[in-house]
Amino acid sequence: MFILNKFISKIEKDFGYPLHTQKWIFGKSFATNEEASLATYGITASGCPIFLYILSTSIEATNEKANDDRDFSSNDDIEKSKQNFTMNGLPDDATQSAGETSETGDEEDDSDESESDSDFESVDNDSDASNSVESASNDIAEPEKANSLQKTYRELVELDDKDCVANVEPFECVICLSEIAVGNGVVLRDCLHSFCRDCLRDAIHYTEEAVVKCPFRNHEYSCDSCLQDREVKAVASPELYERYLHRSVASAESKSTKSFHCKTADCRGWCEYDDNVNTFPCPVCGHENCLTCQAIHENMNCKQYQDQIDLEAAENEDAKKTKEYLDNMLTAGDAVRCPQCMVIVMKKWGCDWVKCSMCQTEICWVTKGPRWGPAGRGDTSAGCKCMVNGVKCHPKCNYCH
């Protein structure tokens, strides 16, 4: 709270003007109560007009009783008082004393001159006094401004910690047209559109995409913002949120070019693999998948599994379908037989260099033969001889070396 007495004391301390020589005017009212707050006089914001008049010692001595007894209870009296001052704060009679020569004698003339000079001195310092008042006001306002900023910051932190933002005023849901009371709706963080919880829950339920878009639509545009994951979790039931997560994972799998889905029936496990990885132990069902054969053949290596498929194809329908699948891969060029052990090898992605998971032979995919000669890596006496003398092994070679 800003008390007038603080300003009066500061002016006395900084400029040496006694308390009884300071006359304060707020708006059209003289300040008569030094213990009152500025708000009492209507000073509630920066920029409000404040007038400070400094009385000279001679004027104060001769007119002290008149000033103390003067009653400014009516606006008419205040207006009459203000008319005695010019725009620069000089009394009219002081101006006349400075500009005219007295006819009553030198003594009276000197007295008038003394009073006029004192008045001019007070006016010259009036600007400095006003600046001091403004500085004092700013000094007092700084702690309150800092407290206000701290309070706002705490409110923002508390709001960010909440999973969803509740509405602070009633509104009409644009989907169901129901009147939603304070706290019963949700304000989306990204776009600030408001909906009731039931309509948002339905939007999550019927959305087929991995992300849930804001359901706001009108004749002008449709909102492209999306619900945040924590907003979905706060609005949806546990079962609905689980479905939302599975939908997101399935979408990520379908967009990945290096994904492999577990071959166990109805298993949701999948992975993203590197070119030098040949097995995928599924964390969901616990079975180990062979990425080379694209199948599960635990307790058998790739050759044993493929030989078993050939033997059972005539009698076992599943084995027959698997054999047809492998044959089609060979025909389409999506798989090759290892030139060393004849196991079917599939290229998962990347360059034309592959390695047999059975015998560890390095294979050139485009020539379907060994990459190196009999001596192994670095032997260019045989194999595809890629980049020997700067020549590729095949026009369509995709970096087998």
Automatic annotation (TrEMBL):
| Superkingdom per UniProt | Eukaryota
Acidic residues bias: start-end ranges: 103-127
Q: Pathway it belongs to?
A: Protein modification; protein ubiquitination
Identify the keywords attached in UniProt to this record, alphabetized.
Metal-binding, Repeat, Transferase, Ubl conjugation pathway, Zinc, Zinc-finger
* Gene3D superfamilies in the record: 1.20.120.1750, Phosphatidylinositol 3-kinase Catalytic Subunit, Chain A, domain 1 (3.10.20.90), Zinc/RING finger domain, C3HC4 (zinc finger) (3.30.40.10)
Instruction: Reply yes or no: does the keyword Zinc-finger apply.
Output: yes
Q: Which InterPro entries match?
A: BRcat_RBR_HOIL1, HOIL1_RBR_mRING-HC-C3HC3D, LUBAC_E3_Ligases, Rcat_RBR_HOIL1, TRIAD_supradom, Znf_RING, Znf_RING/FYVE/PHD, Znf_RING_CS
Extent of Low complexity compositional bias: 128-139
Q: Name one GO molecular function term.
A: ubiquitin binding
- What SMART domains does its record include? RING
Please tell me whether the keyword Cell inner membrane is annotated for this protein.
no
- GO CC terms: LUBAC complex
Pfam families in the cross-refs: zf-RING_2
Q: Where is this region: Disordered?
A: 82-147
| Domain RING-type intervals | 169-397, 173-218
Please give the name of this protein: RanBP-type and C3HC4-type zinc finger-containing protein 1-like protein
Q: What is the lineage of its organism?
A: Eukaryota, Metazoa, Ecdysozoa, Arthropoda, Chelicerata
